[in-house]
Design goal:
Strand order of the largest sheet: 1-24-23-22
Strand content: over 45%
Number of strands: 24
Order of helices and strands: EEEEEEEEEEEEEEEEEEEEEEEE
Helix content: under 10%
Shape: globular
Structural class: mainly beta
Largest sheet: 4 strands, antiparallel
């Protein structure tokens, strides 16, 4: 294995006074903006660029909002101007630049009452990969779905419980996917032409009694970062799953990670805690010298009826 440097992470502090029920999906946009979601509240939020101002609500849906990707086609420096492709409710929806609902793209087979969209991300081709899960965490009820650039959908993995991620290597040829309920992260080889997955291999196993791998990102060096729900940690791994760094965060349920080049941004959740601590549900940040690519946009074909 290639030797990987251990990145530097400083002391965490809350970015704002806001506390979220189920903060998730922080994404760095091309203009330096960081956006995130409060899943069950259906809210899309923008983090303040500086100072200690509150999170800005950009959209509020009447259904859970798992994750968003900016639509390709917006003017440079105006993140989200064109709009957003979102994994929401039981499928995919398009929002305009002001966060208003435009249209429902559709939903994958097998979703319905009791099932909701969870984490999602776009690959280099602008396809959206999204996980679904049961509200009650029914084992095996989750799946990973792909919304392709021609509008077609297919289920690529079944028999998951709480899929989180996926996250892609810098070249887009490796996909990492967590199943938080069983504490695993698997790696897959991705065919960039048709998004076929092969060579599934387990690389990380976290004892569920000690925490669960949740939201992830991959930095420019190829290192995999994961929030460890229930353990109050973030961890950084080499591509083969070798642990490089474990850093405590001052909240018990960190849920996902974003790297800006100057800071690491970590969302957390207060859901399920009888007595939340002072920073449970906060958006946390710390100095960090690792950087990951900005969120890859959804294909411009999804923007056709927004512009």
């Amino acid at each position: 294995m290639t030797a990987y440097d251990v990145p530097m992470v400083g002391r965490f502090r809350p970015m704002t006074e806001d506390r979220l029920e189920l903060g998730e999906g922080p994404r760095l946009l091309a203009d330096g903006t960081v956006v995130l979601v409060d899943i069950l509240a259906g809210r899309l939020l923008r983090a303040p660029a500086e100072g200690h101002r509150p999170l800005e609500e950009m959209a509020r849906l009447d259904e859970p909002l798992g994750a968003v990707a900016p639509l390709a086609g917006g003017k440079t420096g105006e993140a989200g101007r064109t709009g957003w492709l979102a994994a929401a409710g039981t499928g995919f929806v398009v929002l305009d630049g002001s966060g208003k609902f435009v249209r429902r793209v559709g939903g994958p087979e097998g979703t319905g009452p009791g099932i909701r969209m969870n984490d999602a991300v776009c690959d280099q081709a602008g396809r959206m990969w999204a996980g679904t899960m049961a509200y009650d965490g029914t084992p095996g009820a989750g799946a990973l779905h792909l919304l392709d650039t021609d509008g077609s959908m297919r289920t690529v993995l079944r028999d998951l419980t709480i899929p989180n991620g996926p996250a892609f290597s810098p070249d887009g040829r490796t996909m990492y996917l967590a199943d938080s309920a069983v504490g695993t992260v698997d790696a897959f080889t991705v065919d960039p032409a048709d998004a076929t997955l092969s060579d599934r291999r387990p690389i990380i196993q976290v004892d569920p009694a000690e925490g669960s791998p949740d939201g992830m990102t991959v930095d420019n060096e190829g290192r995999l970062w994961s929030a460890i729900w229930g353990a109050g940690q973030i961890r950084c791994y080499a591509p083969d799953g070798t642990l490089l760094l474990a850093v405590p965060v001052p909240a018990g349920q960190p849920s996902s990670i974003c790297l800006t080049g100057e800071h690491i941004v970590v969302t957390t959740a207060a859901i399920g805690l009888e007595v939340p601590g002072p920073l449970d549900g906060a958006v946390l940040e710390a100095r960090c010298d690792a950087i990951a690519p900005a969120a890859r946009p959804a294909s411009a074909v999804f923007a056709d009826r927004v512009l």
